[in-house]
Amino acid sequence: TVLSKLLRALPKAELHLHIEGTLEPELIFQLAQRNGIALSYPSVEALRAAYAFTDLQSFLDVYYAGASVLIHAQDFEDMAYAYFERAAADGIVHAELFFDPQTHTERGVAMVTVIEGLTRAGARAQQELGISSALILCFLRHLSEDAAFETLEQALPYRQHFIGVGLDSSERGHPPEKFARVFARCRELGLHLVAHAGEEGPPAYIETALDLLKVERIDHGVRCTDSPALVQRLAREQIPLTVCPLSNVKLCVFPQMSEHNLPALLAAGLKVTLNSDDPAYFGGYLLRNYEACFEAFPQWGRAEAIQLARNSLEASFAAPEQKAGWL
Ligand code: ES4
Ligand code: ZN
């Protein structure tokens, strides 16, 4: 259709993408074989069949198991380059990739291995696909703040290879304030700051992410609508929300796409962006997320498509000169 051609053609940025969440079952099996790692699933089909999630935690258990096949820098490079190829096909011009170093360092994979592999993929994506990209290091919030500090220390020799830090993994019971000191340190270091908040957690977590962590964007943030005062603030301050529609349905944050609150968020004047989160697990890459929304929300048309794509470029951490070329 005319609209789906527009959705592909519009220059877009992807701002909420866990690179470990782009590991397709086929690549998981290929890397397991290459690295001599035993998987607890007999086949690609059996693994894919396990992708029936009831909430965030039920997904995370499978996601961390999948990441265990990543051992060498080449593995990280292959995974990320496969993502960039799909991103280019979807009309993405710029991608900011989350990575979870603790998922790897806890298994004995060195920080340098992770960052080198991802950095090489980003350089090739720029060269061969014309996509710009950056890395955002995420702290796992189910681990301690001390563990986050240790991770930051391990990453600082490679400071020039990442632009910011984020906060992900199990949200409930792990409020932003648990990481106030390490985020303050990252701020002093000139890193960009983001955090997952209001995916499963309450609006209060969005407020503390803004006020105590001083994040520049909120990842997810969809539960802000439980607090009208917070919605007003997010609109007034034009805080970008990196919403992940297919993720939210797969993890049962909303029962189906037609019941997602995206239309309300956009109508309230929030700076909403669409993103794919963990596309290998949630049923589609960025363009599929756009398409699923435009199928589910009949009131959305050309104007919304243009707005959402523009929001993604504006909310990115790309240099102003680069943004000027897109906008
Ligand atoms: C994640 Cl969907 C989601 N939420 C929180 N943490 C994550 N890590 C990877 N995907
Ligand atoms: Zn996420």
TrEMBL record:
Pfam families: A_deaminase. It catalyses: adenine + H2O + H(+) = hypoxanthine + NH4(+). One of its GO terms (molecular function) is zinc ion binding. Keywords: Hydrolase, Metal-binding, Nucleotide metabolism, Zinc. One of its GO terms (biological process) is nucleotide metabolic process. It comes from the Bacteria. The record marks H220 as: Important for catalytic activity. Substrate binds at D278. Residues 11-327 form the Adenosine deaminase domain. One of its GO terms (cellular component) is cytosol. Its cofactor is Zn(2+). Its EC number is 3.5.4.2. Binds 1 zinc ion per subunit. The active site is at E199. Zn(2+) binds at H16, H18, H196, D277. Belongs to the metallo-dependent hydrolases superfamily. Adenosine and AMP deaminases family. Adenine deaminase type 2 subfamily. Catalyzes the hydrolytic deamination of adenine to hypoxanthine. Plays an important role in the purine salvage pathway and in nitrogen catabolism. This is Adenine deaminase. It comes from Inhella proteolytica.
